[in-house]
Amino acid sequence: MHNQLLALSFVVGLSLAGCKPPETANLAPLDVVFTWEGTVRCTTIPPAFKIGGVPASTKTLDFTMRVGGPTGSLQGGGTVAYTGSGDIPAGAFTYLGPCPFGTQSYNFMVRAIDASGTVMARGYATRPFPP
């Protein structure tokens, strides 16, 4: 019985790992701006962001960082409550920041999510680290 529960937990975990909030058919574009200036290697404190074009119905902003580009290896991210300002301070969420041996490009995807959990807008920004 224990092995069956363990196997079921594993399958459910795999299923949930692929779950994403639903997205509207025509996502509005977000303007995403950030800089690595002042960011130290392997930090847990993300940089500050300026997010433009956020829909009024947005309740949270979801940040995802990948190595390379939007389809690169997932490196972390976080979610912050949207309070009407697109100025997101450094350290607004916790993640494991860039730790390259040389210079590597990192991409942030930001999604604006409404109260029902639907993604309303999405934007990207890519910068090399170290700057």
The CATH architecture term is Alpha-Beta Complex
Name the overall outline.
globular
Q: What helical percentage do the residues reach?
A: 10-25%
Q: Compute the number of strand runs.
A: 8
Strand content: 35-45%
CA(first)-CA(last) distance? 54 Å
Strand order of the largest sheet: 1-8-7-4-5
Order of helices and strands: HEEEEEEEE
Q: Which CATH top level class fits?
A: Alpha Beta
Largest sheet: 5 strands, mixed
What is the CATH topology classification name? Phosphatidylethanolamine-binding Protein
**Class based on secondary structure composition and strand pairing:** mainly beta
Let me know the CATH homologous superfamily: PEBP-like
Overall number of domains: 1
User: Multimeric state of these chains?
Assistant: single chain
User: Nearest-angstrom radius of gyration?
Assistant: 17 Å
What is the tally of helical segments? 1
What is the averaged pLDDT score?
85
Poorly predicted sequence stretches spanning 5 or more consecutive residues: 1-18
What does this protein structure show overall?
With 131 residues, the chain is mainly beta. It has a single domain, classed as Alpha-Beta Complex (Phosphatidylethanolamine-binding Protein). The chain is 12% helix and 44% strand. A hairpin with a 6-residue loop joins strand 4 (58-67) and strand 5.
Provide a short characterization of the protein structure:
With 131 residues, this protein is mainly beta. The chain contains 1 helix and 8 strands.
